[in-house]
Design goal:
With 316 residues, the protein is α+β, with helices and mostly antiparallel strands. Helix content is 43%, strand content 10%. It is built from twelve helices and six strands. Strand 5 and strand 6 form a beta hairpin. The protein is globular, with a radius of gyration of 22 Å.
């Protein structure tokens, strides 16, 4: 259900309520309806979400009269109050980076975004997210009005995620592959972080599944999860990093990390739901500059790929 349908249904509910409401109404709250109404009214009061392909426009209702043309990073309205900025949230960004980018783009304090990100229920996160926004701040291009609060902007991103979840059939697809929706988003985050191109995403997803299915013999051993747990950036974890005791160290711990390590796009989610067929257990970005990743189903093949990577690194 999108924001427009949500608002329409909520207003219809309110129109048919008895006046005045019974006293018990104030003490026995239907949590589902109360939460839905709060989100709908917040959207009606201050933000409109419009889907255009893979992009969303987020603007305060008071700024609807602003000039239609919007340039990245610059508003085109004649008055400051009507100025709107477009903000592109790229696939694979960590939540910490998303919040910083939003703060810079809107001029609003980073602390306000960080505070808003902690209230998962107010943002409309699905129950399976367990209150954490990481993984559910959907990548897209957003048009933001100065009147939009951090809560409204982040709620719009969650609304966008819900639409992607519907389009990819996330909940039912997770059941089909024997995983929870949160596990699928966790796998999608790893796929997004480890991929150099969309073409390889289903294969990388298959490597993850093959490794998970071979526990306790095999761990995931993904550098991306280790670096996330240490709040470091890069493509390779150091020997010291691999000794860390964070729950995201998939070299030391079995199974998946506790949750998503970034905010994946629809392609990564699709790959997590529909991994390619194959017996691969390893993959190596043998030529990262050209976006070449190769796969192996034996340790000997894997070592050859590592050798190829080292050769390309020396000559690159």
């Amino acid at each position: 259900m999108n924001i427009e349908d949500l608002l329409r249904e909520t207003l219809s509910d309110m129109a048919h309520e008895e006046q005045p409401p019974p006293p018990g109404r104030f003490f026995q709250v239907n949590r589902s309806r109360s939460r839905r109404r709060g989100l709908a009214l917040a959207a009606a009061a201050a933000v409109t979400v419009l889907a255009v392909g893979s992009a969303l426009a987020v603007q305060g209702l008071s700024s609807r009269t602003a000039a239609p043309g919007v340039l990245t990073g610059q508003g085109s309205g004649e008055t400051p109050a009507e100025t709107r900025n477009t903000v592109t949230v790229n696939e694979g960004l960590r939540l910490s980076s998303v919040l910083k980018d939003l703060s810079i783009a809107t001029g609003k304090p980073l602390k306000e975004f960080e505070r808003a990100a902690k209230d998962g229920e107010a943002l409309g996160l699905p129950a399976y997210a367990k209150g954490a926004l990481e993984g559910f701040a959907s990548p897209a291009t957003y048009e933001v009005s100065p009147t939009s609060s951090p809560e409204e902007i982040l709620a719009a991103m969650v609304t966008r995620f819900r639409r992607v979840a519907e389009d990819t059939n996330l909940v039912e697809g997770a059941k089909r592959v024997g995983r929870t929706p949160l596990e699928i988003m966790t796998i999608a985050g790893i796929v997004q972080a480890e991929s150099t191109n969309k073409r390889d995403m289903p294969k990388i997803a298959r490597v993850i599944y093959n490794r998970l299915n071979r526990t306790p013999e095999m761990r995931l051993q993904m550098d991306s999860t280790v670096l996330y747990g240490l709040n470091k950036f890069g493509s390779r974890a150091s020997h010291e990093d691999l000794q860390s005791r964070t729950p995201y160290n998939t070299y030391a711990r079995l199974g998946l990390p506790p949750g998503p390590i970034c905010n994946p796009g629809a392609d990564a989610i699709e790959a997590a739901l529909n991994p390619a067929a194959g017996r691969w257990l390893w993959f190596v970005a043998t030529d990262p500059k050209k976006g070449v990743t190769k796969f192996a189903d034996s340790e000997s093949e894997f070592l050859k790929l590592v050798e190829e990577f080292n050769k390309n690194r020396r000559t690159g």
